[in-house]
Structure formats: structure tokens, C-alpha cells
Amino acid sequence: MSAYFTPELFRFLTRLKRNNNRDWFLAHKDEYETHVRQPALRFIGDFAAPLFEISPYLVADPRPSRGSMFRIYRDTRFSGDKRPYKTHLAMRFSHQGKDVHSPGFYLHLEPGGCFAASGLWHPEPPVLLQVRSAMVSKPDEWRAVRKLLNWDDASKLSRPPRGFPCDHEFVEDLKLRDLGTAVDLTDKQICSPRFMEIFTTACRKMSPVAAFLSSAVGLKF
Hints:
Elements: H1 7-18, H2 22-27, H3 29-54, E1 89-93, E2 105-109, E3 114-120, H4 125-137, H5 139-146, H6 171-174, E4 179-185, H7 187-190, H8 195-216
Antiparallel strand pairs: 1-2, 2-3, 3-4
Helix pairs in contact: 3-8
């Protein structure tokens, strides 16, 4: 079994971070194709079968555009940071027809900062209300899921949200504005021939969070 990714992935991203401009990228686009884009698309295609076993409602889409792999190009239209390229590789495995913010799985590859994740990041208020209501209406299920949460809660509310009691068992959870879990990964694991198994195991570990959040917002898992 051969590895999907090699240390050349991280070397390319490190160099791109130092040379984040169009001329450099175009001069090294063959390296991007060989060490970043093509291995990622192959990984996504091969992950479809393991993903189906975890949830038949999530999609691994290996299309070169508008699929599971995020574009390398940054959207700089409304940003003060005009660097044109992302310096990480990212993939999402979401519900069919839903955007990246729907519950599913996410893979982030960056030198020294790789991780798998699942959850809801900055959900819209109506979506967050659905999740909070599910916490209260399904307390047994939420107790089993909440111990898996490990995202930074720096953005949590200082007071309970309107409509929820201050003395509720899950009052601290109800204050959360982002909900999710992550599994840290090493660069060595990413370059291992066993990486498909490693990532699949991480997704299985995180799946109770994805399942609860999916159900809360009316999606099957």
C-alpha cells in the first residue's frame, strides 16, 4: 500500500507560505498538481467507501472543482489580507447539497498543524437554536456527546441564551456558539501508508457529534 501524501506536500506548503504570490505559484504549479491536488483528489475518491460505512448521507466528492477539496485560492474581495493563496490543504465531507457549515467531517493539512474535525462552526442563529433545543429535549443523547467536544470555547456567550433557564444542567453548553470535536494528526501520520485507516478511525471517533448535530438540524446521519 502506498501513501497518498509525501513530505513534499508539506515542503510545498512551507515554500508557498514564504512566496505567496501569483508568479511563484505559477512557476511551481506542476509541484502543486503532483504533490497536493492530485493526491488529495485520489484520497477523496478512495475515502467514499469508508465514509459510506460511517454515514451513507455524507459525500466524498473527488471532482476537481466544487467537490470535497477546497480551492487553494483565497477569497480576498472583502479581506485586508490580499495574499492570493491558502497555505494549507483542506477537504470537507458534508451532506449532499449542503455547504461546508453543515455537520460532517473536515480534514486540514498544514505543516505542523494537521487535524480532523467535525461540528458546526459559526452557525446561523436559527441553526444554533435548533441545536440548543435538541440539547434540552434529548438530554441523554447530549450527555453522551458533550464529553467529546473539545473546540475552543472562547466565543461562548457570557449569559445563557434567551429562552433557556439559567440553572439548566447544560447551561454552559447552551452558551456555546461553536460546537465540535477535533483529532490532532501529525505530519508523519499524513504521510503514512495507513493514513486512510487513521483518518477513518478519527471520523468514527467523532461520528457521535456529527450524528447528534445532523439530527438537531433535520439531516439524516
